[in-house]
Amino acid sequence: MGRVIFHVDVNSAFLSWEAVYRLHHLGGTLDLRTIPSAVGGDQEKRHGIILAKSIPAKKYKIQTGEPVANAKEKCPELVLVPPNYELYQRSSRALLRILADYTDKIEQYSIDEAFMDMTGCSEQPEQTAGELKERVYRELGFTVNVGVSSNKLLAKMASDFQKPNLVHTLWPGEIQMKMWGLPVRELFSVGHASEKKLAALGVHTIGQLAETPDSVLYGCLKSHGLQIKRFANGLDDSPVAPAPPPNKGYGNSLTTPRDVTDRETARLFLLSLAETLSARLRADGAMIRTVEISLRDCHLKFSHRQRALETPTDLTVEIHEAACRCFEELWDGTPLRHLGIHTSGVTRTMERQLGLFDRLDYEKYRCAEAAVDRLRKRYGQDIIKRAVFVEAPGEKRVLADHMGGGISREKRRVDYTKEIIL
């Protein structure tokens, strides 16, 4: 019957996983999915945004990504629980194990989404999708939507139809009936900026986009306009790729607990980011040629600066040095609330040409940092840290986590003994 692709999407993933864990492992009696509730960060640490919300919370127009304070204004009785990424990762792995019983061609699209190439695996794909959906609920306790179609784009669009716990098809012959009447913002790859430009052309639905002349779209949105027109017509030939493509760049960023107002503290946060980033490079057997930093100040103004390196590197010290040089060129003294380091020019040859004027012994530093990597892998990342990250007795300063960025420590796990389990 041709190509068959499933897109499996966990309904309100973080909140669902939290609800199931509280019900089945912590003795909870109230299902968070049935009341206005949300998973949100710590406002005091400036991570106070909504990460996931229940379906009842949607009635109050609570949006993912909005500040917790705004959400509480919309719904004062909103039940807020902290994020627990270790739980979410375990739940995601459990889902993938079930999917692997149906096909070996699985592409994990995100922590709560996956594509499955089911071509030749089932003569009745809709029935199989329904069986898969029910099995996930029976064995794991949470619900998923499954989109069924002939390519990844249409399968993903189908899984976003009515929720929760449903199977939807979007075969090519159903595009006009099921997809063309939707607002253009519902189409994959159409963001807010593209929506505004399309609206200026009088294009408000996916069907209107599908019939807009190429020349008009190219004049307004260049090649992106032609790409989204293909999507509007249901055209997509991308394969389900079980192995993710190699990284083209590595990045890391963090929001500071308080505004940073001095260079010493800023350099410390940049060092914590460089420490984490360089460890990822070495784990992947990669080096980078370009370092870029990004800053967001207390007025939410964004700025960035990049610097090319003389030789590729995976060393913390060299990445940090380049980041600090960018920082000195960029920062105007305005208090900062967010810093990031981003790298590009990735190479995996792992060969470094020695220079006559090299300021450090690369091999010596590389061996030392690799030894630290091994210790942290075996005993935990806190087994060894640079002395600059250790607070002296009586000292009062803004301390950075010695390996900062990414998922912060308070989001990785939750001390449920301090939580009120409803």
Short description:
The protein is α+β, with helices and mostly antiparallel strands. The chain is 38% helix and 18% strand.
Walk me through this protein's architecture.
The chain is an alpha+beta fold and 422 residues long. It is built from 14 helices and 12 strands. The strands form 3 sheets. Strands 5-6-1-7-8 form a 5-stranded mixed beta sheet. A hairpin with a 4-residue loop joins strand 10 and strand 11. Helix 4 packs across helix 5 and helix 11 crosses helix 12. The longest helix has 22 residues. The chain is globular. It starts with a strand and ends in a 10-residue tail after the last helix. The mean pLDDT is 91. Pfam families: IMS, IMS_C. This is DNA polymerase IV.
Question: Which helices and strands appear, and what pairs or packs with what?
Answer:
Elements: E1 5-10, H1 13-25, E2 37-40, E3 50-53, H2 55-58, H3 68-74, E4 79-81, H4 85-99, E5 106-110, E6 113-117, H5 125-140, E7 144-149, H6 152-159, E8 167-169, H7 175-178, H8 192-200, H9 206-210, H10 214-232, E9 250-260, H11 263-284, E10 288-297, E11 302-313, H12 316-330, E12 336-344, H13 362-379, H14 409-412
Parallel strand pairs: 2-4, 7-8
Antiparallel strand pairs: 1-6, 1-7, 2-3, 5-6, 9-12, 10-11, 10-12
Helix pairs in contact: 4-5, 11-12
Region (Disordered): 236-257
Subcellular location: Cytoplasm
Keywords: Cytoplasm, DNA damage, DNA repair, DNA replication, DNA-binding, DNA-directed DNA polymerase, Magnesium, Metal-binding, Mutator protein, Nucleotidyltransferase, Transferase
Count the helices. How many? Answer: 14
Would you tell me the overall average pLDDT?
Answer: 91
Bulk shape: globular
Coarse structural class = alpha+beta
Instruction: Supply Rg.
Output: 24 Å
What is the H-and-E element order? EHEEHHEHEEHEHEHHHHEHEEHEHH
Side by side, the strands of the main sheet go: 5-6-1-7-8
Low-confidence stretches: none
Q: Approximately how much helix is present in the residues? A: 25-40%
| Biggest pleated sheet | 5 strands, mixed
Bin the strand percentage. Answer: 15-25%
Domain UmuC: 5-191
Protein name: DNA polymerase IV
EC number: 2.7.7.7
Subunit structure: Monomer.
